[in-house]
Write a structure and sequence with these properties.
Layout: H1 2-16, H2 22-48, E1 53-54, H3 58-61, H4 72-83, H5 94-101, H6 103-133, E2 137-138, H7 145-152, H8 159-165, H9 174-179, H10 182-211, H11 216-233, H12 267-291
């Protein structure tokens, strides 16, 4: 029980700095603005035409990335990397807390914090989607005509005409909207997004530990984010094998074999891959943490 308390205390120590860290607030504000920009067009159409729209819009934000400045995933994952870029998280009290509660509880607490921070970030995006669609929000397990009209059109306007009347920032995952219900897509996207962000946070933490720097971890995590749209460019040339090499690709519901018969990805395989990667990263962080030197610095007064 004492070990769990120590691990939880290290996690809370990191969350405690959020109150006075303006970087965190700016990143969250930017994430909210991006979400509004991407899905605001669909919400505006639903409100303006008296349509309903589902609140399960995370699949839109995790649409397969292409090489574009408006690729949703690339921007959101970059924001999350900036949220955890200062791993390992060191404060004046950290060396004393490590001495008192043992080193292994410290790095486990840091890993728990990264997982909790990624969970919070995904919950924040889901909440933004809900708030942006008010008052046209539908809580039924259906996409709502506010989205489906952009695929099938209406009796008065084609889908192309709707795009001209109510421009949108991102495309719909059309096949998922046709064949799957929104809550299934939301649940998969949420947990896959949580796992992928945790993966990026762990990579940042591990590389920073090994390099003794807070620069190379960000570079390593950013590499995986930028790799995602590059692999998507070659998805047809590689017969749909390229997404297997990017944990960020796995968050897109459109790339599952439930939607695309040519895809190599399915939910059991994705769960297995994320599990193996995260366990391996945690084990590597544990080994690297044993070798890191934690220095205690004193000011001129000796405090």
């Amino acid at each position: 029980m004492a070990a769990f308390k120590n691990i939880f205390a290290f996690s809370l120590l990191n969350f405690g700095r959020w109150k006075r860290d303006y970087r965190v607030w700016i990143l969250l504000a930017f994430a909210a603005l991006l979400t509004a920009d991407y899905i605001g067009g669909y919400a505006a159409y639903a409100r303006g035409e008296g349509r309903e729209i589902t609140f399960c819009l995370l699949p839109l934000l995790h649409y397969p990335s292409w090489i574009s400045l408006r690729a949703p995933k690339a921007l959101f994952y970059t924001l999350f990397i900036l949220l955890v870029c200062d791993a390992p998280f060191m404060y004046k009290i950290t060396p004393y807390a490590v001495l008192r509660s043992r080193r292994n509880r410290w790095w486990i607490g840091e890993c728990v914090y990264i997982a909790m921070a990624s969970l919070f970030f995904m919950l924040f995006l889901a909440l933004c989607c809900l708030l942006i669609t008010v008052p046209a929000t539908s809580f039924e397990n259906a996409w709502g005509s506010g989205l489906t009209d952009y695929i099938f059109g209406t009796d008065q306007h084609s889908a192309l005409e709707l795009l001209q009347m109510y421009p949108v920032g991102i495309d719909l995952p059309g096949d998922a909207v046709r064949y799957l219900n929104p809550m299934e897509c939301q649940a998969y996207t949420f947990f896959a997004g949580w796992a992928s962000m945790t993966f990026l946070g762990m990579v940042t933490y591990l590389v920073n530990l090994l390099a003794r720097s807070r620069f190379w971890g960000v570079v390593a995590a950013a590499f995986f984010v930028m790799l995602d749209p590059v692999l998507m460019q070659y998805i047809y040339e590689t017969d749909f094998w390229s997404p297997l090499f990017s944990p960020i690709c796995w968050t897109s519901i459109e790339l599952l074999d439930y939607v695309n018969d040519m895809s190599r990805l399915n939910i059991p395989l994705v769960c297995l891959l994320y599990g193996v990667l995260l366990v391996a990263l945690v084990a590597a962080i544990g080994l690297a943490s044993k070798k890191i030197v934690i220095e205690v610095s004193c000011d001129e007064t000796g405090d």
